[in-house]
């Protein structure tokens, strides 16, 4: 029997659930300064992209493209940053961050620049709803 997928506790703590795509769970990072989503393949014990099958890798890139297009459509950023670092959370996850020349960290990376600024619950709900509508 295959182990069941479970979301890393740090990702669960730092994000809001948006939706599930065929392969990935879509999460909204609880950082109100930047439109920032994370894709997490729903596969147990998956740490690296090469841990996925060839067809799953293809699906991951399709869903990453879908995420990128959603962020571009909703927010019209100056740049879209993508990363799969995994130094703190080893579970495979891909960050998609809409960046603006006027944002607080520009042009530096967002990681560790400032303490996270959590969404107000109403703002989080509104952003989640907008993302869900684009994915539906």
TrEMBL record:
Residues 38-106 form the HIT domain. It comes from the Bacteria. Transmembrane segments: none annotated. It holds the Pfam family HIT. SUPFAM superfamilies: HIT-like. This is HIT domain-containing protein.
């Amino acid at each position: 029997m295959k182990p069941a997928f479970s979301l890393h506790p740090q990702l669960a703590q730092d994000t809001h659930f948006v939706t599930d795509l065929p392969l990935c769970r879509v999460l909204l990072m609880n950082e109100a300064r930047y439109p920032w989503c994370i894709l997490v393949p729903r596969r147990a014990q998956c740490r690296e992209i090469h841990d996925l099958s060839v067809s799953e890798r293809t699906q991951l890139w399709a869903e990453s493209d879908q995420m990128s297009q959603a962020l571009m459509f909703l927010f019209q950023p100056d740049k879209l940053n993508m990363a799969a670092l995994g130094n703190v959370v080893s579970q495979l996850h891909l960050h998609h961050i809409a960046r603006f020349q006027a944002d607080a960290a520009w042009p530096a990376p967002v990681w560790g620049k400032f303490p996270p600024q959590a969404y107000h619950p109403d703002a989080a709900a509104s952003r989640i709803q907008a993302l869900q509508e684009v994915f539906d």
